[in-house]
């Protein structure tokens, strides 16, 4: 009969042997490391990048697959893009007063952090007002 210490040593040895086999197999960690070193995005990065699409100019908009481009996760947005985002936010808030940022961002198709700077500009200019704090904030268009 084995004592507890011997049983633990046997299981740890078997576990380490399995890990060594996985690391040496073609589908193991070595293959994933090689693909990472070749500059290929991981599945997670590819999924994040596919969310960040921008609309092409013209009638097709976001549905026009010829004009859709996956953009880099880090890129400088053009002034026209920023202005369009601010205008879209303002129109949406005018049509849907009292909505939270998460809802607005989801409906506009942008992550919340992408809208944050433009919303601050709209708040400073007095075109939009905010009630509440942090995640409980709701937005209203100011009628001029």
TrEMBL record:
Biased composition, class Polar residues, residue ranges: 25-41
UniProt-annotated stretches for the region Disordered: 25-71
InterPro entries: WH_DNA-bd_sf
Highest taxon above the source species: Bacteria
Protein name: Uncharacterized protein
Organism: Haliangium ochraceum (strain DSM 14365 / JCM 11303 / SMP-2)
């Amino acid at each position: 009969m084995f004592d507890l210490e011997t049983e633990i040593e046997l299981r740890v040895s078997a576990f380490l042997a399995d890990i060594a086999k996985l690391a040496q197999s073609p589908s193991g960690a070595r293959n994933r490391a090689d693909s990472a070193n070749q500059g290929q995005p991981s599945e997670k990065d590819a999924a994040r990048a596919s969310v960040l699409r921008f609309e092409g100019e013209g009638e097709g908009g976001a549905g026009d697959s010829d004009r859709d481009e996956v953009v880099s996760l880090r890129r400088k947005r053009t002034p026209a893009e920023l202005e369009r985002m601010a205008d879209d936010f303002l129109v949406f808030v005018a049509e849907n007063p009292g909505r939270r940022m998460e809802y607005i961002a989801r409906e506009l198709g942008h992550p919340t952090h992408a809208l944050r700077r433009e919303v601050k500009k709209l708040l400073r200019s007095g075109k939009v007002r905010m009630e509440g704090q942090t995640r409980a904030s709701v937005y209203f268009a100011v009628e001029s």
